[in-house]
Amino acid sequence: MRQAAFDGRGSMIRWTEAAGEGPAAVFVHGLGAASTVYHAHIAARPELAGRRMLFVDLPGHGISDRPAGFDYTLEDHADALAALLDAAQVRGAVIAGHSMGGAVAVVLAHRRPDLVARLVITEGNLDRFPAATAASSGIASYTEEDFVHGGGFARVLEHVGPLWAATMRLADPLALHRSATHLVRGTDPVMRVMLERSAAERVYLQGGLSGELRDGEGLEAAGVEVRTVADAGHNVMFDRPGAFARAVAGR
Known about the structure:
This protein has 251 residues and is of the alpha/beta class. It has helices at 35-39, 74-87, 100-111, 135-140, 144-149, 152-159, 162-168, 173-185, 191-197, 216-221, 236-239, 241-249; strands spanning 2-5, 12-18, 21-28, 51-57, 93-98, 116-122, 201-207, 225-229. The two termini are 29 Å apart.
């Protein structure tokens, strides 16, 4: 485990790492998740043999610190990730972001293009105000007080299913609520526009079981390679690890 300060007050963002050569592959988890749980099995894939790989826990999640005075905006998460990459002496990385982690990766590439050569976004949040059925919208529907202290966190854990609950219960409730709220509000410019304008090589993975990607044609017109992964849902890295690993490897 390694760590880097990210907020000017001594709070640490932490990651685990597999040693290797070539451009680093950096894995960024989604809302209420943890990177090793969602991505560590990818380190054993032959498509990525010999590559340096970093498995990042965003602030408020997993093994990273959870400062109460932190806003947990997408920009805050991206800046914390940038601090980590600076500390790890990573440049020109492949950033593989899942769900909220995809949005964070897009913002990182916008704010610090020197750090990112390639984006692999797996069902990343690109638009403001997703459907009410989205988990981020459900969490953001609570007030911060009700979610953190009024039983909202416990109610959400009961409804997300055992797999997601196993990592969500490790997240700080305050960080989870603020992250979800800012994810719903989005960024300016919005994440989709940042992705379309990015100079990095870009791949967007959509699980075939998740339905059609909104305005995938617009992404493709902007130079984003959109791959629909058959027989996969939101968690492509679990459902089709080979297809996920090939995307990260650039195959």
